Amino acid sequence: MNNNGPVRYKVAEAARLAGISASTARLWESQGLLVPGRSETGHRQYSAEDVARLKRISWYRVERGLNPAAIREALEIEEPSAENAESSSTSDIGRRLRSLRHAAGKTLEQVASDMGITSSTLSTLERTSQGVSFKTLHDLAEYYGTTVSRLSGEESEDVTAIIRSGEWRTWPQTTPGVTVQLLAEGRRMMDCHRFVLAPGAASEGAYRHEGEEFMHVLSGRLELVLDSDQFFDLGPGDSLYFESRRYHSWRNRHDGETVLLWINTPPTF
């Protein structure tokens, strides 16, 4: 363990401290009750807060006899609300989604069923802002009557005229391998983004919305599919303009990063 940072426990250590078995800890993770961190090699790493959460889950399970869905709801009530909690760049999207769900009077199971995903996946997203495809994130925003850009915090009133190279604000990374950086701030008529796609990164499905969009590939290679039957292979220097109401999906076809400029107008994404 790193003596200069917070203590991290392996699954067996965390389970022992919580008075449960390691297999039970893994089961609760699969049910979306807890999302431990991961080391660079992919091994589970539990914080002191994770151990405390395991103890709370155990108490709800043993003393109250609650099922996983009821435990999730009970834990949510214990946590600070999205409006009152201190924001962090890694969890804002999840907090906003949870706040929207509560405002709609929906349970995790109801929204997950409507979206065609598991309740554990949705729970993970609301707690960590991670773990879903780009398409699913878009569909959730549409479901709640908002946009991905608004969920990501592009809400400031003032428009910043200039943003220096390398000083772009970055969305929380909800989708593995997809980094979205803001090239313009504030209320405006265009969503202006710089996408950085890791090898193999993709939308994992087609989505659509109102407006028009323009993309320009700076480096790498991108495959874009419109309406499931029009394929565009875009390389460095290539541009494409299309109506956003057409279903579109994409993936990085390069063995390295693909970087592109992507603009939507009006800001409906």
Automatic annotation (TrEMBL):
CDD domains: cupin_XRE_C (cd02209), HTH_MerR-like (cd00592), HTH_XRE (cd00093). Gene3D superfamilies: 1.10.1660.10, Jelly Rolls, lambda repressor-like DNA-binding domains. GO terms for cellular component: cytosol. Keywords: DNA-binding. SMART domains: HTH_MERR, HTH_XRE. It comes from Rhizobium mongolense subsp. loessense. InterPro entries: Cro/C1-type_HTH, Cupin_2, DNA-bd_dom_put_sf, Lambda_DNA-bd_dom_sf, MerR-type_HTH_dom, RmlC-like_jellyroll, RmlC_Cupin_sf, TransReg_Diox_bact_type. Residues 8-77 form the HTH merR-type domain. Residues 97-151 form the HTH cro/C1-type domain. One of its GO terms (molecular function) is DNA-binding transcription factor activity. Signal peptide: none annotated. This is DNA-binding transcriptional regulator, MerR family.
